[in-house]
Amino acid sequence: MMEQCKAQHTPEPEFVLIRNKEFRTILPRDYLTDQVLNRIGLNERQRKAVDFIKVSKKITNKDLRQLTDAIYRTASRDLDDLVKKGLFGSFV
User: Fold this and answer.
1) Which of 53, 58, 4, 49 is nearest to 27 (CA)?
2) In sequence order, which residues have a C-beta less than 8 Å from that of residue 23 and are 6 or more positions away?
3) Which residue, 22, 39, 49, 56, could crosslink 18 as a Cys pair with Cβ 3.0–4.6 Å?
4) Closest to 29 measured CA to CA, from 59, 8, 3, 58
5) Model pTM greater than 0.70?
6) Selected residue with higher pLDDT from 11 and 69
7) Does 46 score more than 50 pLDDT?
8) How far, in Å, CA of 16 to CA of 76, rounded?
């Protein structure tokens, strides 16, 4: 199941044990669909950042530069714009 989620660029399931009696699997809904991303107006670098974050749960400026061959300032602007658009919390 974990491999399938990674292959589809969707969040991994969460496994929860409740009071040592009940086991639940939570499959998060991926709200960042292509339709939503098109409406938001992301560029190709930002789309790659979103796909990366869906799998890795985080991204750094260096990660985005390696994914896209962007320079430092371009990657910073792209990440800042994702935050301004409300997609993610602030990047450090």
Assistant:
1) 4
2) 15, 16, 17
3) 22
4) 8
5) no
6) 69
7) yes
8) 36
- The Cα–Cα gap between 53 and 25 comes to 21
Longest pairwise C-alpha distance within the chain: 52
- From CA 49, how far away is CA 54, in angstroms rounded? 9
Which tokens hold the place of 23? 């086991």
Question: String of b and e for 28-63 (b: at least 16 CB within 10 Å)?
Answer: eeeebeeeeeeebebeebbbbbbebbbeeeebebeb
Q: How far apart are CA 44 and CA 50, in angstroms?
A: 10
Structure token digits, residue 75: 């990657």
Q: What are phi and psi of 89, to 5 degrees?
A: -70, 180
- Higher pLDDT residue, 11 or 51? 51
The lowest-confidence range among 4-13, 37-46, 52-61, 74-83 is 4-13
